[in-house]
Design goal:
Shape: globular
Number of strands: 3
Low-confidence stretches: 9-27
Radius of gyration: 23 Å
Strand order of the largest sheet: 1-2-3
Mean pLDDT: 84
Helix content: over 70%
Largest sheet: 3 strands, antiparallel
Structural class: mainly alpha
Strand content: under 5%
Number of helices: 13
Amino acid sequence: MSLTSLIQYRKFLFMPFSGVSEGVSPAKPPSSNIVDWHRKIFISLIVASLVIWYQPIVSTIKLALHNDAYTHILLILPISIALIFSERKALHSLSWSFGWLGWFLISGGVLLRDLGVLLKADSGLPLTMLGLVLWWIGAVISCFGVRALRAFLFPLCFLFLSAPLPEQSVEKIKDILQHQSAFATAILFHAAGVPVARDGVAVSIPGLDIEVAKECSSIRSSTMLIVITLVLAYLFLGSWWRRLLLVGMSLLLSVAKNAVRIFTIAELGTQVDPGYLHGRLHHQGGVVFLGLAIVVDLFFLWVLRGSEFRASASSNSC
């Protein structure tokens, strides 16, 4: 099922959470000439941003292609465009109030870009790309009004994930994933009745010593899982606390899936065939455990959605 199909399915399921509120009349549609003019300005601003930020964009794409910690960046812009495109009809009922705020954000984007160029350090590229996102959001507001920001709040804020984190922050995240994965793996061995000892990121069981290296922190699959969960929560949940709860569950699943992977490979390597310790499941099996985590994620989504339906039905009956 494509992302567009999911969006249309979401509209069918969650009509109470979308659209114009009861008792509130939609804004009077502007004339087609004005709309076309503002669209032309918007396209010009987007093209200008691609020219101004050409080098940082290329650097970010290269970073995403060659560094596992940034692979998710390749998904952000296509997903945001698909979400905005699915809600494009909202542009016909928008006003251009607070357009000055858009130009303010555009100016702020230029300043961040210049600051990032001056730094030319670990934080230079992140600042530069944050400036690009500010420019894009400012272009939307200046051309379609602040109501556009409200209508497209999630896909526009989602774009901030396209700015790469500084390398120091990524290393800290990897360190957290390493230690938490080792901790969770030790719990699994203990639950399975296997004698286990843990010292930091090192886990020892009879016949095997395991070190959860940074390469095994599963940061790529973890960021992918969180990105997928953010989109699912937006599409299929209406209450903010359920969305936060689902995203929180994805953070726990990020650690749990890696622990299950380490536990599975270690058990297969010690009990079945030592070849599993260096085989395809070790080096290429991340997608399998990511798939399992997504299935569990979907189960929690189903539970939360069911509770949301029941709460809605109960309030309507009252």
